[in-house]
């Protein structure tokens, strides 16, 4: 569905943000895009949507080059930016103006999503809070039935019940012909929702693996003492939260935060495990 | 699917842009109407209430008003059209609307060069119609005689008591100037996408600097080429070897070419716009 | 459903389904929630639920009727108990044994305590 080949990208010619970044994404997955501030999460998403242009390399999104901004691709992309703008009209006016561009737009689904999010249909967009607007734009994006869903920090600005609603909605939105990519800092909001982790660090993909693969190869558990098997550990109340190679096929729950810090700190120890 | 132009999609885009900009556009029109009425009112109210006898000169404000205010109106509209692309959140939504860059560009031309110019002319025409009709009903005795040559070369004598703006300045007389408003809007349209902030001022300053440099080059090169030389008129080379209509054609051609160039730059900038 | 910290999510979901079957909420030959319904209810990725269902299928606890969905398998009750027993023996029993050993608790004492516990809890 998405093929990125040797992508080089930089906002200035001398300082590249991505160097020879390559990766493939397929249908039927929710990818969690992680990375430090400035690692290029939003930039990678913008590359996929054709909002910025790479220096070199090839990008294939649903068989199109996104840089050409062709309507046939644009109608299959739902992009939820972190900062967004909605005109000061009523929701139905907004839908009237924009939905027709998406041939698969599902009006009843849109209404159902708004109801799920507790958004009154007749309300003017300008009188809404940031979180409410975000819910409208998410509902609209999902109702387009686009094949590629790109979300940049979607849970930012959502209150606690909305985050739960969001997770439910995303769980139901994943179908076999859809590809969902979510970038986030709030790993706790989404850690049961994503099935594949993509971590950006040092101009490239530091880790791309499914949750299943990660927990097959690594085990996350509490230990009393750190021995030489431990790849990375953080002190906790009862000893340490540790990441270790999974020698005994133990089942453990992926701790995304711990993995994130482990990848940043111990990239060299983790690389051979995943290659 | 045609990814360059589709008439149905273009229609949808016009509708969408109208929903987005229509309100501001109508408000600008209302302001413009207010300004025109104010000028007419201030200039003519003494004649209308009868404290001051009407003379032909009282209507001389119309030509400068039409030209100067018309210029201001269409240039402001044009310099606003793509201005919002300077703001990331708005640009993202607009660039991702499933329509081709060409359609988005054409919509810009339609709103700035066709709708803006036409609506200004109509507003001016209607205001003039109202005020002059009133004057005509009050002052039957004032009349003026104009002679002009029509298209077939016949001299036409027209007698009118108080003349409407567009019959005094018959559109037929100014055909070569039709290119001017398009030229003006094309400059400000390109300015609206070229600059990220303060579009109007920056465009105006650029035009001034550019035309200043251009005049200087012409002047200096003329000085360099002809200084100390005497122009000799000969049979083969009459001084005025360029007839009026040839000059007009040349001028119009220049304007048309420049307009086309500015429009192409706008299109390319829109295509290359990154967020 | 609250997820615990240390156990893989797909196994926690498996335990949840097993509990439903043991408690008789889902009976033999009845349809279990679809992958999507379960994913939405638990706010997890549908692929995780799919993994759970594949595991339960391999343990003959649920069966897949093509095109219709998943159903509680014929011998589900027996198989659930088998499955939970294996899990208990492999995962929880070692922890108990470790404590029994460390704290020097004799088997006689364990047996009496076990019998009282059963009497108090299951035969009031």
TrEMBL record, chain A:
Domain ABC transporter: 2-227
Keywords from the named record: ATP-binding, Nucleotide-binding, Transport
One of the record's GO molecular function terms: ATP binding
Domain of life: Bacteria
SMART domains referenced in this protein's UniProt entry, alphabetically: AAA
Entries under PROSITE patterns matching the protein: ABC_TRANSPORTER_2 (PS50893)
UniProt protein name: ABC transporter ATP-binding protein
Organism: Pedobacter polaris
UniProt lineage: Bacteria, Pseudomonadati, Bacteroidota, Sphingobacteriia, Sphingobacteriales
UniProtKB/TrEMBL annotation, chain B:
Protein name: Uncharacterized protein
Keywords: Membrane, Transmembrane, Transmembrane helix
Organism: Pedobacter polaris
Chain ranges passing through the membrane: 24-45, 65-84, 105-126, 177-195, 200-219, 249-270
Automatic annotation (TrEMBL), chain C:
Keywords in alphabetical order: DNA-binding, Transcription, Transcription regulation
Protein name in the entry: GntR family transcriptional regulator
PANTHER family in the cross-refs: GNTR-FAMILY TRANSCRIPTIONAL REGULATOR, HTH-TYPE TRANSCRIPTIONAL REPRESSOR YTRA
Residue span(s) of domain HTH gntR-type: 7-75
Signal peptide: none
SMART domains per UniProt: HTH_GNTR
A single MF term (Gene Ontology): DNA binding
Classification via InterPro entries: Tscrpt_reg_HTH_GntR, WH-like_DNA-bd_sf, WH_DNA-bd_sf
Positions in coiled-coil regions: none
Pfam families tied to this protein: GntR (PF00392)
């Amino acid at each position: 569905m998405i093929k990125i080949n040797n992508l080089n990208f930089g906002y200035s010619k001398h300082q590249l943000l991505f160097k020879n970044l390559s990766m493939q994404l397929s249908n039927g997955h929710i990818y969690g895009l992680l990375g430090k501030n400035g690692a290029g999460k939003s930039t990678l998403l913008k590359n996929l949507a054709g909002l910025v242009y790479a220096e070199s390399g090839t990008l294939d999104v649903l068989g199109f080059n996104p840089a050409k901004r062709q309507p046939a691709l644009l109608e299959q992309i739902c992009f939820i930016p972190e900062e967004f703008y909605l005109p000061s009209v009523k929701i139905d006016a907004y839908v009237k103006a924009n939905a027709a561009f998406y041939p698969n737009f599902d009006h009843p689904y849109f209404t159902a999503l708004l109801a799920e999010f507790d958004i009154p249909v007749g309300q003017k967009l300008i009188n809404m809070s940031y979180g409410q607007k975000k819910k409208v734009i998410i509902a609209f994006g999902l109702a387009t039935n686009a094949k590629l869903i790109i979300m940049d920090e979607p849970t930012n600005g959502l209150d606690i019940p909305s985050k739960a609603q969001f997770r439910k909605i995303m769980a139901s939105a994943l179908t076999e012909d859809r590809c969902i990519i979510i970038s986030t800092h709030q790993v706790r909001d989404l850690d049961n929702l994503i099935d594949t982790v993509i971590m950006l660090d040092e101009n490239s993909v530091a880790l791309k693996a499914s949750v299943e693969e990660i927990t097959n190869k690594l085990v996350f558990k509490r230990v009393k003492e750190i021995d030489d098997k431990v790849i990375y550990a953080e002190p906790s109340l009862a000893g340490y939260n540790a990441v270790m190679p999974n020698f005994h096929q133990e089942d453990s729950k992926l701790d995304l935060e711990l993995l994130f810090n482990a990848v940043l700190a111990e990239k060299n120890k983790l690389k051979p495990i995943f290659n | 699917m045609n990814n360059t132009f589709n008439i149905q999609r273009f229609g949808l885009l016009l509708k969408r842009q109208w929903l987005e900009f229509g309100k501001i556009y109508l408000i600008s029109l209302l302001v413009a109407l207010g300004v025109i009425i104010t000028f007419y009112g201030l200039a003519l109210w003494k004649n209308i209430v009868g404290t001051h006898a009407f003379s032909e000169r009282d209507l001389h404000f119309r030509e400068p008003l039409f030209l100067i205010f018309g210029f201001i109106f269409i240039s402001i509209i044009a310099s606003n059209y793509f201005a919002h692309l300077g703001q990331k959140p708005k640009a993202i939504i607009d660039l991702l609307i499933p329509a081709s860059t060409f359609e988005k560009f054409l919509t810009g031309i339609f709103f700035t060069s066709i709708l803006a110019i036409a609506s200004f002319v109509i507003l001016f025409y209607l205001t003039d119609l109202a005020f002059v009709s009133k004057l005509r009903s009050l002052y039957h005795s004032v009349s003026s005689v104009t002679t002009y040559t029509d298209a077939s070369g016949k001299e036409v004598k027209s007698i009118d008591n108080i003349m409407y703006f567009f019959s005094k300045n018959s559109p037929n007389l100014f055909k070569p100037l039709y290119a001017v408003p398009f030229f003006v809007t094309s400059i400000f349209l390109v300015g609206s996408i070229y600059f990220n902030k303060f579009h109007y001022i920056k465009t105006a300053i650029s035009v001034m600097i550019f035309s200043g440099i251009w005049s200087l080059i012409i002047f200096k090169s003329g000085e360099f080429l002809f200084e100390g030389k005497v122009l000799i008129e000969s049979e083969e080379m009459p001084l005025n070897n360029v007839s009026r209509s040839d000059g007009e054609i040349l001028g119009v051609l220049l304007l048309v070419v420049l307009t086309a160039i500015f429009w192409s730059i706008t299109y390319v900038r829109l295509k290359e716009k990154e967020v | 459903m609250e997820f615990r910290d240390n156990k893989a999510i797909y196994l926690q979901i498996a335990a949840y389904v097993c509990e439903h079957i043991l408690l008789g909420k889902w009976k033999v030959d009845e349809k279990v929630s679809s992958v999507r319904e379960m994913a939405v209810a638990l706010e997890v990725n549908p692929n995780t639920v799919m993994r759970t269902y594949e595991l339960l299928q391999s343990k003959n606890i649920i069966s897949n009727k093509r095109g219709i969905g998943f159903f509680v398998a014929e011998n589900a009750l027996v198989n659930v108990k088998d499955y939970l027993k294996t899990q208990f023996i492999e995962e929880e029993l070692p922890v108990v044994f470790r404590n029994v050993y460390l704290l020097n608790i004799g088997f006689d004492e364990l047996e009496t305590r076990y019998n009282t516990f059963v009497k108090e809890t299951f035969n009031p």
